[in-house]
Design goal:
By secondary structure, the protein is of the alpha+beta class. It has helices at about 90-110, 165-180, 220-230, 285-300, 315-320, and strands spanning about 10-15, 15-20, 25-30, 30-35, 45-50, 55-65, 130-140, 140-145, 155, 195-200, 205-215, 235-245, 255-260, 265-270, 270-275, 305-310, 330. A hairpin with a 3-residue loop joins strand 5 and strand 6. Helix 2 (about 165-180) packs antiparallel against helix 3 (about 220-230).
């Protein structure tokens, strides 16, 4: 297709869909553009920032006509960072979009035709639900998420999808770093100490804090422990240092050093108790996990005589949850730290 436009040009576009990354999708003279800064149903003026053979990328300059599905995001950082997408879209449309993405991927990638994908089961309050937060740490004591489309950190003090405990941990770590001049990791010059922050919270609001460092050096460990454990409004039961020397997108490295408290964080799904390490895979949404697992039980329709294999089971939450419905359940996992 011969293009009569180039990088830097500004075009008008109707957004007819959203992709997996929350970017608006539209066609201009039959050519597909993915545009950031808009939502489903918007009509926008956008600037072309990249052109490929089969598609282009753009940035919204102005919203010419607002979508009837558009709402004001509860997140004050939503237009800048990559912490969450779709929060400027009505929740029922978010659920519809997620269903359509699954159906499209099964048909387009999996080549599965005529498949039934049922409606997405939503939450009553789809905010403040995540029991695990992962944040980047960088120069000038910045803690937050990457700015959309870059590896520059956009600092945040609060995250609408994380539990409030994560906000408090961010504030305390920033105070510690400033007071004791402990530098965050500069990904451009490959210097600094603290790279990432991981916060895990259980149903009882007990907290595991994981400080990810470039090397084993972490000054003022005692003061770090004191600042996290002396807060009456924060119940920190475990603090770890994780060593990650590699400059990749992977948050955690291979080595964990326990600095304080319990080896594991105890959490629950239904009547079952689970011991969670810094690297354990555990569903991040307590409310929806129980909904999901009850749906698994319903669809399996076990009679009590079956043997079930749960592949890539992680900590074994599904295996254990369905165990009382089957004769035997095997959980299979190759990553030791995930168990």
């Amino acid at each position: 297709m011969k293009m009569d436009y180039s990088i830097g040009d500004r075009l008008e576009l109707e957004i007819v869909d959203l992709n997996n990354e929350g970017m608006g999708v539209g066609k201009y003279k039959g050519f597909t553009f993915f545009v950031e800064g808009c939502t489903l149903g918007d009509k926008v003026l956008f600037e072309i920032i990249k052109l490929k053979k089969n598609y282009g990328l753009g940035r919204t300059i102005e919203i010419l006509e607002e979508s009837p599905y558009r709402i004001e995001s509860k997140c004050i950082y939503s237009d800048k960072c990559d912490g969450c997408e779709l929060h400027n879209l009505k929740y029922d449309k978010q659920l519809e979009l997620k269903r359509n993405i699954v159906k499209s991927n099964l048909e387009r990638i999996g080549k599965i035709k005529d498949i039934i994908v049922k409606e997405t089961i939503g939450m009553e309050y789809p905010y403040r639900y995540r029991n695990k937060g992962e944040f980047k740490v960088g120069p000038n004591y910045e803690i937050g998420y990457f700015k959309r489309g870059t590896h520059d950190i956009y600092p945040v003090e609060s995250s609408i999808i994380q539990k409030e405990t994560a906000d408090k941990v961010i504030r305390l770590l920033k105070e510690f770093m400033k007071k004791y001049k402990v530098e965050g990791y500069d990904r451009k010059v490959k210097k600094g100490i603290i790279k990432n922050l991981v916060v895990r919270t259980n149903k009882d609001n007990k907290v595991m804090v994981v400080i990810v460092t470039k090397g084993e050096k972490l000054p003022h460990k005692k003061e770090l422990i004191d600042i996290f454990t002396s807060q009456p409004e924060l119940d920190v039961v475990s603090i770890y240092q994780n060593i990650n020397p590699r400059d990749t997108s992977v948050i955690l490295g291979a080595k964990d050093i326990k600095l304080y408290g319990e080896e594991r964080l105890i959490d629950y799904i239904g009547e079952y108790k689970f011991l969670i390490s810094p690297k354990s895979f555990f569903q991040v949404n307590h409310v929806q996990t129980k909904v999901l697992y009850n749906k698994v039980v319903e669809y399996l329709n076990l009679k009590g005589h079956e043997t079930v294999a749960d592949l890539y089971c992680g900590i074994g939450t599904i295996s254990i949850y369905i165990s009382k419905y089957a004769r035997k359940v095997y959980g299979v996992e190759v990553v030791k730290e995930a168990i």
